[in-house]
Amino acid sequence: MNTKINEDLKVAMKEKDAFKLSVLRMLKSALQMEQIAKKHELSDTEVSSVIKKQVKVRKDSILEYKKYGKEESVKNLEEEIAILDAYLPEEMTQEEVEKVIDTVFASVKPTSMKDMGMVMKSVNEALADKNADMSLVSKLVKDKLSNI
Question: Cα(104)–Cα(132) distance, rounded to whole angstroms?
Answer without folding.
Answer: 15
